[in-house]
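Board notes (copied after class):
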Amino acid sequence: MGRMPFSPGTKVGRYEIRSKIGEGGMGVVYRARDEKLSRDVAIKVLPASFADNHDRLQRFEQEAQAAGTLNHPNILAIYDLGMHEGAPYVVSELLEGESFRDLLAHRHPPTRKAIDYSLQIAHGLAAAHEKGIVHRDIKPDNLFLTNDERVKILDFGLAKLTQPSNDITAQTDIATRRVHTNPGAVMGTAGYMSPEQVRAAAVDHRSDIFSFGAVLYEMLSGRRAFHGDSAIETLNAILKEEPPELSSTNSNIAPALERVVWHCLEKNPDRRFQSATDVAFALESLSGVTSHPSQQTLIGVKALPALRNRTRERLIWLGVTSILFIVAVAFAVAYFSRQPANQRSVRLALATPDNTTLPSNITVSPDGQRVAFVATNTEGKHLLWVRPLDSLTAQPLAGTDGAQTPFWSPDSRLIGYFANRKLFRIDASGGRPQGLCDVGEYSGGAWNCDGVILFGGLEGLHRVSAQGGTPQLVTKISPQEEAHRWPSFLPDGRHFVFLADADTTQHHNIRVGSFDSQDTQILFGAISRIAFARPGYLLYVNQGTLVAVPFDTSSLKVTGDPVTVAERIAEVGDNHEFDFSVSDDGTLAYQTGSVASQFTWFDRTGRKLGIVGEPNGSDYVTLSPDGNSAAAGLLDADGRESDVWLYDLTRGTTSRLTFDPQGDGTPLWSPDGTRIVFGSNRSGAGQVDLYEKAASGAGDEQVLFKSAAAKFATSWSRDGQFILFENWLPQSKGAIWTLSMSGNHEAKPLLQANAFNQGTGQFSPDGHFLAYISDESGRLEVYVQRFPLSSDKWQISTGGGLQPLWRGDGKELFFITEDKKLMAVDIRTEGKFESGIPRELFQGNMKTGLGYSYAVTADGQRFLMSAPLDAPAGAPMTIVLNWTSGLKRP
């Protein structure tokens, strides 16, 4: 190295050395502290001999500067470069984890993980290639897996500086060869070089694709693609031989995945994938094809149909929106050509594509140029989409499966969203999502100019860095409240407004708070998502109507009366989320709908058979064992709290079962139909306890189980001995518990939360099996286990699943998907358990909140669903330019 290692405390530029991390042919790497920006960094100090060669030093600076322009979550971030005592150094982000070399030395990842890691690498390479930067030395040593399983590509540009090796070493650790941009010099590392590198020919981005293929092969097979006893033999293998078939070492590799590997490893670059983007697209199409062909009947996804569907989807978007876009442009041109003094509001309708679900969770970027929303595509993926307002089409963001409640960064470049009990961020133009932290529920986020994200929760609002980290509690709920939700920053970035959700009507309020104190102040009473809008309004929904109330950000007070902005704003999800958004430049977006729902009968084809009762606000319904009655938790007349109501389906009458002023709901019938168990929040503070009452209404309700958690009963065994209930503690994962219906009603955990959520357990009719949902795979899916529990477990759904229910004879299992499709699966339990392929019965429009939004008759032929009234299927999003025009300014 030409110098002694730095000791802790040594100053290198503005960085203070803390400890040595590693050492190699390219230099010594240290952990250091950047006091100016209060962060730890990594410093790679290169040998002083690099500075002796002016051309090489100039190349180093050029390559490091080029690498520094790569701002992508899957590429090591370069912060700085400089000279210290004659030795060049480069400063980068500090990574915690292990290199792929260490990973593969001890284990090779499961196929699903290998695809995920490879997809991240492909995204990183695509970002670099778009800027004209080729790595030239992709190998396990230059790939790093962080502790949160984010893949980072290391040493972009630095590969060009490596010295030639004078000796031939063993294949286990072959030195990187000399690299130049001119033909005639070998570039890369033996074993991972492309054929054109071996021949010392000119290379381009397709060389990286070959090296990527070699790494992917090694991850899947556990051995190197090209391996000889010497470097010469290895290089000859790259030129003349093909690696052994993957199936010879891993019989579970799907043929479609194997084809991706071989397409990367084509000897002729013209026959390879022509871009890393194409590689990523092919891998994304394999989201379900990770098993042996004999298992693909369960998975039901193949790459080529996925490619055709994606192409068809793009054509649909283009065709449906082109005419509307021309009209919209004409309106927009007319609008923007007017003088400011004559500005008026202009309303535009953005059509939604065919073959996708109705968009929801609409959010407009702060600059008013783009709108993001959530919709399900033709492949059944529930994704985040982005549409520029001056574009014909919207584009889905890959990797955002299960996205909910998106929100924008202040610079309109990034989007935050929630999925799989985590908070994520993603570049609005695409890329790999970055997980920021775990969350307890999805109730809104806000992002300020200081890089702080505020999000809702059951304990209060939390803040976390936009770079990720451990959330910190900002506000605390009072004993009368159950959660703080839907934060929105005020212009100073330190004050914010939010909904204080509560158990009783009088305690629902819009509040204002700040980072300076956990104390908050009431602004007014409301039960709605809240949003600040420039120049000085608060937007919220009152009985389905979007209203704006003038608000002074200096005094933090309301200064006028609410003014109507739009009617019939759609309510989505739970927790008073209404579908509207406003930008800093005066662009408003919203989706119309109905806050009321109607219990409706459907047959197996989705044909409407009739309605039950009057319109209501319920999202939960359950049938009695004989099918003659239904129970639901219905909102009171003021629309705030709920009580349990019963429907006599034979006579068409309705009766009230509970009368407590607090909220009662989520009813469950006993096997003989004489009793009902329900949940009630009478204890307050987010606690929901289990009560029991005679279905006849006679007598008082009795407490079954009380604890400091939110609980709701989901299934009652036919022998009457046990109840399954879902148990939620604040800031914890959901778990399934059993409650004994004899003696002292002992409650025990059945399926613990641990690292993932589990819930909505359902006893099979014979009591020998348990159906439930779990997000152990990264998304909520339906599973079945034997009861009492054993090691036998079967995954039933493959593209997401919720709310499983058994047919009366146990030979069929129903569930709904995130995009509200009702699915059915044949089940066989005699002897060996077997499940069929999930098949769609019909596209529903039921709610997907807490509990069950549908019920099924014992014969499996009719379904009672809580469906929104006047569901605007296919209705366009409404965009309003200059929405404040005509409103009386504060």
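Comment from the instructor: The longest strand covers residues 15-24. Residues 597-868 form a domain with the Neuraminidase fold (CATH 2.120.10.30).
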